[in-house]
Structures
1.
Amino acid sequence: MTATVARDNQVAARANDVWKVYGSGEAQVMALRGVSVEFERSRFTAIMGPSGSGKSTLMHCLAGLDSVTRGQISIGDTTVTGLGDAGLTRLRRDKVGFIFQQFNLLPTLSARENILLPLAIAGRKPDPAWFDTVIDTVGLRDRLGHRPAQLSGGQQQRVACARALVARPEVIFADEPTGNLDSRAGAEVLNFLRNSVKEHDQTIVMVTHDPAAASYADRVVFLADGQVVTELTGPTPETVLDTMKRLDVLAEADV
Amino acid sequence: MLRATLKSLLARKLRLVLSGLAVVLGVMFVSGAFVLTDTLGRSFDAVFSTAYSEVDVAVSAKPKVAVSEFEGEQVAANFPASTVDKIRSVPGVATATGVISADGARVIGTNGKVVTSFGPPQLGGNWTGDDELVELRSGRGPTRDDEIAVNATVAEAAKIKVGDRVGVLTLAPKREFTLVGVFGYSGGRDSLGGVQEVMFTEPVAQQLMLGEKGVYNSVVVRSADGVAATALRDDIARALGDQYVVKTGEQLSDEASAGLKEGLAFFNNILLGFAGVALFVGIFLILNTFSIIVAQRTRELALMRAVGGSRRQIIGAVLVEAVVIGLIAALLGLGAGVGVGALLAYVFGQFGGGLELAPIGVPVAAVVSAFVVGVLVTVVAATLPALRASRIPPIAAMQDVATPDRPLTRLTVAGAAVAAVGGALLALGLSGNAGDNTLWTILGGVLVSFVGVALLTPLISKPVVALLGRIFSWSVPGKLGRLNSGRNPRRTAITAAALMVGIALVTGVTVILNSAKSSLTALAEETIQAELVISGAQTGPRLPSFDPAVLDRAAALPGVRVVAGLYGDMAMVGGERTYVTATSDVSALRGIYKATPTSGSIDRIGPRQLLVDAKTARERGVAVGSTLLVQLTRGEQQTYTVTGIYAESDLFGGFVVPVEAARDFAVPQPNLGYLQLDPGTPVDRVLPQVEALLADSPEVSVADRASFIEQQTGQFDQLLLMIQVLLALAILIAVLGIVNTLALSVLERTRELGLLRAIGLGRGATMWMVTVEAVVISVFGALLGVAVGTGLGAAVVRALRDQGITNLVLPWSQAAVFLVLAALVGGIAAVLPAIRAARLNVLGAIAHE
Ligand SMILES: Nc1ncnc2c1ncn2[C@@H]1O[C@H](COP(=O)(O)OP(=O)(O)OP(=O)(O)O)[C@@H](O)[C@H]1O
Ligand SMILES: [Mg+2]
C-alpha cells in the first residue's frame, strides 16, 4: 500500500521500499519489510502501531540515525542512504530536528543554551524574531535561565520542542514525546506541536502509542509487523482506536 | 553478593586496568627494591668470599684518623717490615706476606683521560705473584721499577695492552710505566666486584701508594695445617698489641660485604621513595575511580538496598572489589618488580665494573610487602567511596536524577584543618626544633599538606576551572568541555590533585635547588677573587688532584700575580675529627677569599702553626696562642699553636695548617688552584699556557672564574634534572588518572554524547569537547602544583636562610613550561577517551541505559 502521492517538492521525507534486518541467522529480526511512505511538507503526521511493529526503527532510518538494509531514504532533496558520518552530521545539523521520549537536554546548560545548542553547533546565528516567537509559543520565557534539573518533565519536553523548532529544520522527528508526561502536560506539548505546523509551516513526524495524541495529527500512518498497513486523514481518537483494533486483521489481509 | 561484585568487576576490565596501574607501579618499585638488594647482596657475598679465599688472617694497623663513611676514606697507618717478621715468628703461621694495597691508583687511558670509578676502589699495590686467586692472563708480573701489571677490568677500561706505556696517577703526580702483565681472578673474573687493581714492584708501591719507603699497610697470613684461623688471629693480636687490627679472612669478607650492602641501602631508599610517590598518587586515582563507579552504580546499589541489602553488605561489596584489584595489581607489580630488580642489578653490575651477578631471587620480603602494600593502598583508597555507597538511600533506585551535589562546606572545613596541620608540621620541621625527627616531620608535613590541599581543591576548582575554561569558550564544543569539567568538582579536583602532587614536588625541588644555586653563585661571585681556577669534577669518593709543581710553574708565567693551591683532608685536631686545609700561599687567602683577620696574623703560617675561623674558634674555645694536638693521616701527632683567627665566610672556614703538613694528607696534592693575574692581563692569553702545564694532570682543568662557578653550580642542574626525571613518574601516573576519569566520564555521558551527535555535533567537535575537558583539568592540576610547590619550596628556602641560601628564585619559566606541558599532557590523555566518544554509535548511545 502506498501513501498519498504528492508533488515532489512538497515531500519533506520519503522512504522507498525500505527493509531493515537486525542480526543474522536464528536471531534475525525483520524490523521493516518494504516500507514506502512519504511525509508531506507542513503537515503533522503520526505513526502508530503495536509495540515492536517497527515505528522507532522507521523513524531512526528516516532521520539517518540508522542505516537501512535495502531501499532508499531521502530528506527534502537529499538522499540519506549512503551518506558518510560527515554527511549525516550535516544532515542532522541542517535538516532534521529531534524530540526524544526522555533525556533531551544537556544537564550542564540552561534552557536557553539548550534551545540554541543546534544553532551554536552549526555556527549559525539565531533569528531573534523567530527565537522570540518560539519561546512565546512554548511559554518558557521566565524559565530560560534554569537548568533542566530545575524544570518539570513537561517543561523539559517543551524546551526540547523549542530546540527542535528554533533551527527550522526540514522535518522534526518525535519519538513518543509525550510518553513520559501526564495528559495535561502532554496536551500542552501536542498543542504546541500542532500550532507550529499550522502557524509556522513546520513538518513533524511523531511516533505515538496514544490515540488521543495521534488525533492531534493531520494524518496517521499505521504500521504492523514492519509494514505500512493503512492510514487515516483527519483522525479523531475514536477512529484511531478503531483502526488500531482492526490492525491485526488488516495486516493478515495485507500479507 | 560476592558473585555479583566479581561479575561487575570483570565486566569493567578497562576500569580495573587503569585504576590498578598506579598500584602496579608502586608495588613494582617496592618489590624491585627488595629483589635488587637481595641479588646484589648475594653477589657481594660471593665476590668477597672469593677475594679473601687466600687469606686466613689479615693484619693492618689502626688508622691514625678514624673517618666515617660519609666523611671520606679511612687510610690505615703504615707499619715497618719488622712487623711482618714478628708475625712470621708467631707459632702456627705458615706464611706471612707484607702487602701494599691502597686506593688511589688511577690509570690514564689511551684517550688521555683518567679511568674513573663510581664506587669500587682503584687499588694500587705490590705484585706478590700469582696464586690460587690471581691468574695472569697475559705477560708477567712487574719486576723492574718502571713496570706494572693491571687487572683485566683496568686493561679494558683504559684500552691498554701488554707492552704499552701507561701513565698512572698515585700519591705522586703522573708517572709512566710499561704494562707487562694483565691478570684476572679465579673463576674467570676480570675484577672482584668492579675493583680496579694496578700492581707495582714493592718499592714503587711503597713509595707511590704509601708515601714511605720500606713499609706495608697489611699482612696476609696463611696458617699452618691444622691451625684454626680464629685461634691464630688471637695469637697474632696478642703478639702485636693494640695498635693493630687482626681479623680472619672470613671476618673481612663479611665486613666488606656488609659495608657495600649498607651502601645499597641508599639505592633501596631511592626506589622506595619512588614507590611512595607512586602509591600516594595512586591513592588519589583509586579513590576517584571508585567514587565514579559508585556514582554510576547508584541505582544498582540502591536496588540492592531496596531488596534488603544492609549497609555493611554494600561496603563489603565495594571493598571486595578493591581487594581483588589490589591483589591483581600486587601480583602484576611483583612480577614487574622482579623484572625491574633484575634489570637494575644488571645495570649496576655493568656500571660497577663488571660485578658478577648471583642468580636473581625473589625474597619473601618482596612477596609479603608487595601484597601488603598493594591491598592496603587499594582498600584504604576505596574506603571513602565504600562509605559513600553505603549511604545511598534505597529510594534512589526509583529516582531518575542522580543525587544532587552535596555542599562542599564540610569538605572545605576538613581540608582547611588538614592543611593547617600539614603547615604546622612543616613549620616545626623547618624551624629545626624537631630534633632527630626533622626529616620525617618535614616529609609528613608535605604529605599532610598535599592531602589538605587536595581536600580544598573542589572549592578552588569551581572558580579556577571556570576561569581557565574561558580560554576555550570561543567554540561550542570548547564551552561544553569546560562545563563538563566544572560539572563534578570533586571528581575534577581529585584528578587534578593527583597531577598536583607530582608537579608540586618538582616545582618545590626546583625552587630549592635554583635558590641554592643562585645563592651560591652570588656568594662565589662576590667572594672568589681569582681570574683563573684549576679544578676537576669529582666522580668517586676522592677529590681530583693535580701535580703541585704546576703551582710554581704557573706562578712563573708572565702576567700571573698570585697562585694559591688548596689541599684538604680529615684530621684529628684537639681530639676531634675535623676537615683541615692547607694552601701553598696563605697570604693569598685574603685576596682570593676576602678573608679578614679578627686577631693574630693570617698572612703567614709557620711550621706547627694553625689558622682558624672565628666561629670554630668560639666553638672550640681557642684563641691566638692556644695549643692543640694535631694528628694527620700520616706521620706522628704534633702540637700546633693557633697564630691567627679570621672572620668565617660561607665559602671558606675551618683549620688551616702549613702547606708542608699537606705531605701527610691522604692525598698530598692540591685539588684546587686559584690564579690572580696582573691587572690588564688578558685571561685568554694565560689560560692556554696553564692548560699546557696541566697536560700530565688529566683529572683537572683550568677555567676562568665564570666557567668555574658555572661548573661548580652545574651540579645543581644535574641533580635537578635527575629529580625531575624521577618525579616524571608521578606525573605519568597522574596522566593515567586523567585518562581514567575521562574514560569513565565518557562512559557515563553516553546518552548525552548521543544526543549531541543526534543534533549535529560532528566527530571532530566531539573529540575537541573531550580534549578541552582534559586540558582544563590538567592545567588546573598544574596550576595548583606550581602554586603549592612554590609555596613549599619558598618555605624551605626561607628556613635555610641561615645556611647561606639567601636568594629565593621563583620558577617562572619552569612554571610556564609545566603549564604548557600540562596542556599537552591533557591533550594526550584525552586521545583515547575522545576517540571513544567520537566513535559512539548515535542510536546505541541514545538507547543506552
Ligand atoms: N538493535 C536491534 N537489534 C535487534 N533487533 C532490534 C533492534 N532494534 C529493534 N529491534 C527489533 O525490531 C523490531 C521493531 O522494533 P522498534 O523499536 O522499531 O519497535 P516499536 O514499534 O518502536 O516498538 P515500541 O512501540 O515498543 O517502541 C522489534 O521486534 C525489535 O525487537
Ligand atoms: Mg519505539
2.
Amino acid sequence: MEKLLNLTLKVWRQDGPKAKGAFETYKLNGISPDSSFLEMMDILNDQLINEHKDPIAFDHDCREGICGTCSMYINGHPHGPDSGITTCQLHMRSFKDGETITVEPWRSAAFPIIKDLMVDRSAFDKIIQAGGYISVNTGGIPDGNAIPISKWHADEAMDAASCIGCGACVATCKNGSAMLFVAAKVSQLSLLPQGKIEASQRAKKMLSKMDELGFGNCTNTGACEAECPKNISITHIARLNREFIGAKFID
Amino acid sequence: MWLIHSSVGRKVIMSVTGIFLVLFLTFHSVMNVIVLFSAEAYNSVASALGANWYAVIGTGVLALGFVLHILYALYLSWLNLKARGKDRYAVTKRQEGVSWSSKNMLVLGIIVFGFLVLHLFHFWAKMQLVELQYGHGWEAAGFQNPQDGAYFINASFSNPIFSIIYIVWLVALWFHLTHGVWSSLHSIGVNNKTWINRVKCISNVYSTIIILLFIAIPVYFLLGFRVL
Ligand code: HEM
Ligand code: SF4
Ligand code: FES
C-alpha cells in the first residue's frame, strides 16, 4: 500500500453572505493517495462533526466531472493544480505528505459567497435564460443524418458544448469576466443549423446579460482557458466577438 | 451606444485605437532609423512633417487615438476591478501559457505614458510646437531650428542616461505590444483555432521588429557613434 498522507488544510470559513470570513487550519491524518479531493473533504467533515464543530459547506453533486458544481480554489488554482479536470476528479496523489493545502471559494463580485466554499452562481443561469436556447419548434425527432453537418462544425460545437458551467473561468479571471462561458454557450448553438437562425440575437442578449450582471471586460489573458476543466478554447471568444460586432453593425 | 455600454464594444475601441497606435509606431520607427543612415534624409522627412495642415491634423488624430485608448484603458480597468470584487485569493499561481504582459497591460501602459510625456517635452515641444508658435520666427525667438530633427536626436541621445531611459521605455512598450497586437485582433474577432498560435507568433515578431528599429538609435549612441 502507498504511504498515507498527513495534511494541514487551510480552509475558508464564512457563516453567511454578509458575515466576515477567515481561514481555519485543520490537521488531517491518514489520507489515502487514491482518494479523491472531495472524499478527503468528507473525511475532514466527519472529523469536524465528531468534534461537534460545524462541517464545511461545499457544493458537489455528480462527483464525475459533469455537473460543474464542485467549486474549490485549491492552492491558487480553480479545481486544483491538475489541468483539465474538476475538483471531484482530483486525486490526493497530486499532493505530498505533510503539505499545507489552501482551499478557498470562487471569489468574484458576480458570485457572492453563500457559506464557506459555496458560492451563488445563479448569474450563469440568468445568462442562459437570456438566450441560451433555440426557440423554434423543431418538430418530432428527425432522422439521424437528415441535416448534413460537417465534421468540423460538429467537433467545434461539441467542444463548446462540453462546458459544464462551473465558473472556474470567472473565478480565475483577473477581470472577473464570464466571456469563456458565454462564448462556449453561444458557440455550441450558433455553429449548428438549428441554432444559427437566432445566432446574432443570442450573442447580443447573452452578452448584454453578462455585462448587466457585473462581469468584467475580457482582456484576453487566457487564464480561463488554462484553468477550464474542459479545456474550452478562447477562440470561441473570438467567434462571440465576431458575432456580436457583426450584429451591432447590421443594427 | 454599444461602444460604451457593452464590454465587447469597449474592447472594439481599445482594439481599434491600439491598432491605430501600432500603425503609427510602425511608421515612426521606420522614419527614425533613417537618421542612422543619413541625417539629411531624416531632416527632410522631419520638415515635411512640420506645421503644415496635414501634419497638424495627423497629430490631432493621433492625440485623439491616445486619449481614447487611455480613457478606455482606465475605464475598463476600473470596471474590471469592480467585477473582481473586494476579496482577494490568499494563494494565486501563474497559469501555464498565460503571458505576464497580458495581466499587466495597465501598468505597462502607464510606464509607456510616463515616458511619452518626457518624449513630447524633448522632441515635439521643440519641433512641431515651436513651429506652430513662431513659424519662421523661431530664430528671433531664440530657438533651435525646429526642423532639424537630427540635431535634437544627437543632442538628447549623446547623454547616456537619456539613452538608457529610452531603452527601458522601449522594453516596457515591447511587453505591451507582444500582448497587444494579437489581443487587438482577437478582440475584433479575427482569430480561430488554426490561427491563434500563428497570430501570437506574428504579434511577437512584429513587436520585436518595431522595438528593434526604435532601440537601434539609443544603442547606436551608447556605442559611441553620433549622427552629426
Ligand atoms: C504607443 C502606445 C500604445 C500602443 C501602441 C498600445 C497598443 C495597445 C494594443 C494594441 C492593445 C490591445 C487592445 C485589445 O486587447 O483589444 C492595448 C491594450 C491596452 N493598453 Fe495600450 N497601447 C499604447 C499605450 C497605452 C497607454 C499609454 C495606456 C495606459 C495608460 C495603455 C493601456 C492599455 C491597457 C490597460 C490595455 C489592455 C486593455 C484591454 O486589453 O482591453 N496603452 N494597447
Ligand atoms: S468555460 Fe470551462 S471554466 Fe468556464 S464554466 Fe465552462 S467548463 Fe467551467
Ligand atoms: S461534483 Fe459534479 S463536476 Fe465535480
3.
Amino acid sequence: MNHEELKRSVSAQPMLLTSEQREHLLNCSECSSFVQELQVLEARIEAALQVPVSGVMPKPMRGFSALPFGLAAALTTVAVLLTALLVATPQDALARAVALHMDHEPQALVSEQAVDLPALSAVLAGAHIALLPGGPTVTYVNACQLRGHLTPHLAVHTSNGPVVVLMLPQERIAKRQSFSQLGLHGMLVPMARGSMAVVGSGATDLDEVISLMSSKVRYLD
Amino acid sequence: MAPVIKFPSRRSAPSGDGLSEQGSKTAKFEALCARFQPDVFRYAYWLAKNRALAEDIAQETFLRAWRAIDSLLEPESVRPWLLKIARREHARLYERKRFETIDIEDPVAVSDEGMSVFPSEDLSEVRAALFTLSDDYREPLVLQVLFGLTTSEIAEQLGIEQGAVLTRLCRAREKLRVVLSGEK
Ligand SMILES: [Zn+2]
C-alpha cells in the first residue's frame, strides 16, 4: 500500500483503520499526520452534521400551500423538451447535460425566498466564483456535479418568474447559443472563464439575467 | 385521517400487562419517535437543506411508520427502515412539488449549541462547506458519519455499488479539506 492508496482508503473511512493501514501508519510519519488531521476534520464534520433538531414529532399534517405548481411543472416539461431539442446543435453535449440536470432538480424553480448570503458565497467559492453586491436575488443555490465539475446551480428571481443559472467555469464555448420551444428558452453564454447556462420560461427575460450576472460575477484564483 | 399521537411523556411509561393492543401499539410508536426523531430530522435536513421541509419530511416519515408499525420486527432494523422512508418522502415531496420554499439557512440560528466542543463559528463554517458538496457526495457522508452506516449499508440505502460509495466518501472529504483550508 503506497501513500496515495493509504490516503484514499482512509479518506473513505477515517474512523475504521484496517491492520494494513495501521502498519503503514506506524512506519510513515507523512501519512500518520495526514490521518490525524483527517480525524480532527471528522470530528468537526460530525459536530456540524448534528444540526439542532426541531419539530415536535409527529404533529397533524400541515397543509402544504399549493405554490407555483403549474410553473414548476411547466419548467420541468421544458427541461425535458430542451433535452430533446438540444441534441442537434453545436455545443450540444453541454446543452444536453444542462437540460438533463435541470430536469433532475426541479425544486430549484419553485422557491421565492432569497437564500442566505453565506451559503451562496460558500457554494460559489467552491467553484472559485464570487458575486458582487447588487447582483440578482438568488432564491436557490446548490453545488452540483455536471460533467465532472463542481457547478453552482442558482435560481434567480425576476419579475416574470425564476430563471436558472448554472455557472460553468470549466466549460468553454465558442459563442452564444440559444434555444426556444413552447414559450421556454435557454442560453449558453461564454464568460471570462468558461461559460454560463441560463434557462427560463417564455415570460422571463434571460438577457436581463445574463447582463446582471455578467456584470456581477468575478472569478477568483 | 391521521392518527392523533402524543409525544411520549417521560413519566407515564405504560405498564405492560393491562395494555390494550392499541395502547401497546401507541407505546411502541412513541418510543420509536423519541428514539429516532433526531436522526430522521437530521437526515431529512441534509437532504432538503431546509428546516421547514425537514420537519415535514420527518413528520410524514413517522406517519407512514405509524401505519406500518405492526409489520416492524427487529429493533435494529428500525433506523435503516425509517431512513429509507425519509429518503422516499424527500423524493416524493419534490415529485409532487408540494413544497413551499427552498432555502439554505444557517441552522445555528435556530437554537444555541452550547453543548458542542466546537465554537459555533466553526460549525457554521463546516456546514457551509457541507452545503458546497453535491447531494451525491453529501448523502453518503451523512449516512456514514451521523449514523455509522457501513459502506455496504450505504450502498444498499442509495442503490449504488459499494465501490462508488467509497469513491464518493473519499472525494467528499477531499473537497471538504480543500474548501475548509481555503477559508482559513
Ligand atoms: Zn505513507
4.
Amino acid sequence: MGVSEQDMMSTAAGLASTGKIPFASTFAIFAAGRAWEQVRQCVAYSLANVKIVATHAGVTVGDDGGSHQAVEDIGLMRILPNMTVIVPADGVETRRVIETIADIKAPVYVRTGRIATPVIYDDRYKFRIGHASILKEGRDVTIVATGLMVHIALGAADLLKKDGISATVINMSTIKPLDEDTLLDSAMITGAVVTAEEHLISGGLGSAVCEVLADKYPCPVKRIGIQDRFGISGPPERLLSYFGLTSQAIAEAAKKAIKARKDCSTTELPRVRTMRA
Amino acid sequence: MESISDVQKLIQIARRVRIQIVKMLHQAGSGHTGGSLSAADILVALFLYKMRHKPNNPDWVHRDRFVLSKGHACPAYYAVLAECGYFVPEELYTLRQLGACLQGHPDCLLTAGVDVSTGSLGQGLSLANGMAMGTRLDGRGARVYVVLGDGEVQEGQVWEAAMTAPHYRLDNLCAIIDHNHLQIDGRVEDVMNIEPLGAKWQAFGWEVQSIDGHDMKQIMEALDQAERTKGKPTMIIAETVKGKGVSIFENQVKYHGVAPNDEELAVALRELAAA
Ligand SMILES: Cc1ncc(C[n+]2csc(CCOP(=O)(O)OP(=O)(O)O)c2C)c(N)n1
Ligand SMILES: [Mg+2]
C-alpha cells in the first residue's frame, strides 16, 4: 500500500466487505494512532472483519525514539466498541493468535514488538481469545502482565520467592474482552494485585484491571508501566530499566500491594463471586 | 549567519557533512543512511546559502523556517546544524543514545535549530503551511522550507496540504522532494507509484521546478527562483540518488534504515575523502 496507513485501514475494510480476511499491518503508532478514526469508522463501527497486526509497539522500538514508540495504542484500541485487543507474550503465542483470529469474524487488534524475547510456551500451548493463562500459582500477590512484560513478571516472581512471597503470574494476552474470572479468582486468594505492561499506566492493562476490580472486588492494585510521558531514544534493554519496566520494580510493587492489603485488613475484604461461564 | 555563495565551498561542506553522517550513524549503530546522504546537498544549500537564521540565537523572530518532513534523515540535518554552529560537532556522536539531545527523529524540545518535531511521515507540509501563514501574518518576510521524501508523498495528508498552500497563495513557502526513487521496502514505482509527480503538483497549483538534487549550483538557483515566484508556492523536485556519495550505499534499498558497520564505514570514509 505504500506509506498510507489511513488508506490501508479503509481499504482493508472494503476488502472485508467482500468476504475477504485482510490482515493490515504497520507500526503500532501508525496503526492505532495515525489511522485511529479510519479504524473506528470503517473497522470497529462497521464490524468489519479486519485483522490489524501492529508491530514495533512500546519503548523497546529503541533508538528511533519517542515519535515511533507507541505507548498508548492499547488504550486507543481498547476504548473502541467491537474491538478485540490481543498482546501475545512470545513467538509461540503470536503464532497461535494469528491462526485463531483468522477463524473468527470480528475486528481484532494484535500488538507485537520489535525485539526478540524469550519463548515462554511450548508447542502444546493453546490460545483462546478472552482466556488468560496462569503461568505460576501463588497465595500472596497476583501479577497480571501482558506482552514482553510477562517474562519480566516471571522474573519478579522468582525474586519474590527468595523473600518468601509466593506470586501468581497471569499472562493476560487478551486485553479485551478481559478474562475477569481468572483475574477475580486469583485476586480473591491474594487480595493484592500488580499489573505490568509496556504501555502508559493509563488506558491499558492496568486501567482495564482496575476497572474490573473496582467494580467487583476492590483491593490494592499497583500498576507498572510508563508514567505520563513519551518515550526517548536509547537501547531497548536500557529503556526498559529507565522506565522502570523490570522484575525488580514489579517485585517492589508487589510488596507495596501486599503491605497496602495488610494496612486495610481491619476492614473485611468483600467476597463477591461472579458466576463462572 | 553569513550566506556562503561560493559553490566550491558549499560542495566541500556537503562532503564534510556526508563524512559526519556516516560517522555518527556508525557510532549510533542504527539509523537511516540512504535518505540522509540523498538529502545532504539540499540541506547544505538551504542552511549555508539560502536561509536567514542565527545559530547563536535559534529563536530569532525574523528567521526563515525549516521542516524536515522526512524526519528519519535527521543525521543530515544534525550534521548541517553542527556545521552552522548550533552545537559542537562532538554532540553528533551522541546520536540516538539514552539521554542525548539528538533523538532518532527530530525533537523540537531537545535540539537547538529544530522548530518542529517530525518522524511520522506526511505531516511536515501541513506544518510548513501553518508556519508560512503565521510568518506572513507577522509581516516579517520570513520564508519557509520543507523537505519531503518521495515515498512520503504517498501519505494522503500530503495531498490535503498540497491543496492548502496554493489556495492561500503561500508564495513564501518552498517545498523540496528528495526524489531518490526508493522507500523502506523497495522502489517507489513498485511499492506505490507516485508519477507523474511534477504534473500532479502543477495540477494542484504549484510552481514546479525539476533539478538535479546533487548539483549544488542547480539547487541554489532553484531556491533563488522560488523566492522570486509570486502568488503561489514552489515545489522543487530534486532528482537524487539514495546513499549518494558512497558506492556501496547508492541505490541500495537495504541501506534505507541500516547504519554502516566497521568495514562499510572504512569504505565510505575512503570514498568521501577522495571525492
Ligand atoms: C506515517 C509513517 N509511516 C511509516 C513510517 C516508517 N518509515 C520511515 S522511513 C519510510 C520510508 C520513506 O520513504 P521516502 O519518503 O522515500 O524516504 P527516503 O527514501 O528519502 O529515505 C517509512 C515507511 C513513518 N516514519 N511514518
Ligand atoms: Mg525515497
